[in-house]
Specification:
The protein has about 290 residues and is α/β, with parallel strands linked by helices. It contains 12 helices and 5 strands. It has a domain of about 140 residues.
Length: about 290
């Protein structure tokens, strides 16, 4: 059985640190809620109760079905997107360097790890995020609400190209997770691909080999169309304005942050050491392969 969840968390920590903040004056503790415009009054209150906020004390924005279609219309059929805006979200800004924490309620198709991967690509960082609905929904529109809330909370605007790639990435992960019957495997693959890509500028053939090799390392068999989809995403990631040079510095910072956890949980210390060594060897092998 693959231990994918821990890998995903580690890779997302790495990739997070390459994302550029939207606004330098973001205030920790700032909260913004986005609600699907087509919620009933009862459902609207249900979401506010779930988020633990009072309507009079928090900024509330609405997300419309038209907004969802504008973002996802070229990636999903109208039947999948639906005709009502239901998904809702709450974002709470945290201290710089805290990373992302995502919780979901009644979200069936997009996993927490998939949201984290996509949010990091979009440039969202240092925030606690809750995505929810009053009844089970796919969750594809959740990213639209999170990004709208983050931009409002930080009083900034995310790079639209990064947002577009983030949505494509989220859909690709969800479709792969459905086909595999394993959401975490799909998210894990995406996280590892982005971590391995870094600031390299690889050819189409090199990217294709990267996808095949990383998938093989996870014992995943991809179809030609899945490889093509991932290839398209990696090609676009290479063109985004992401400061990959921060990865090493931030990796060292993250190691310091987990020291407290290791002290409190000595039973996982040896496992983590072996994992870090595996990551080091994995990256070194990729560098040798693509520079030879």
């Amino acid at each position: 059985m693959r231990r994918l969840g821990k890998w995903t968390a580690l890779m997302c920590c790495l990739f997070l640190l390459g994302a550029a903040p939207v606004a330098a004056d973001a205030v920790p503790g700032e909260q913004v809620v986005t609600l699907g415009k087509d919620l009933t009054a009862e459902q609207r209150q249900e979401m506010l109760d779930l988020f633990g906020v009072d309507e009079a004390d928090v900024t509330i924005l609405e997300v419309t079905n038209e907004e969802e279609k504008a973002v996802l219309g070229h990636l999903l059929s109208p039947a999948v997107i639906g005709s009502r805006a239901i998904s809702s979200a709450k974002i709470t800004l945290t201290e710089k360097g805290q990373g992302l924490n995502v919780e979901t309620h009644n979200i069936t198709w997009v996993s927490k790890s998939m949201y984290v991967n996509a949010l990091l690509t979009a440039g969202v960082e240092d925030a606690d995020v809750v995505v929810a609905a009053p009844f089970p929904v796919s969750g594809t529109a959740g990213l639209t609400g999170i990004i709208k809330a983050f931009e409002a909370a930080t009083d900034g605007k995310l790079d639209q190209e990064r947002v577009e790639v983030a949505n494509e990435e989220m859909i690709a992960q969800a479709q792969l997770g459905e086909r595999l019957g394993d959401q975490e495997a799909a998210a894990e693959l995406m996280a590892r691909l982005k971590e391995a890509l870094g600031d390299q500028k690889l050819s189409e053939e090199q990217l294709r080999n990267l996808i095949i090799n990383v998938a093989g390392d996870l014992n995943l068999q991809l179809t030609d169309s899945e490889i093509a989809s991932l290839l398209s995403i990696l090609q676009k990631l290479q063109q985004l304005d992401i400061d990959w040079n921060k990865l090493q510095q931030q990796w060292q910072q993250w190691q310091k942050q987990v020291e407290h956890f290791l002290d409190a949980n000595p039973e996982v210390k040896n496992w983590l050491i072996r994992l870090l060594e595996a990551i080091r060897d994995f990256i070194q092998n990729l560098i040798v392969q693509f520079t030879s």
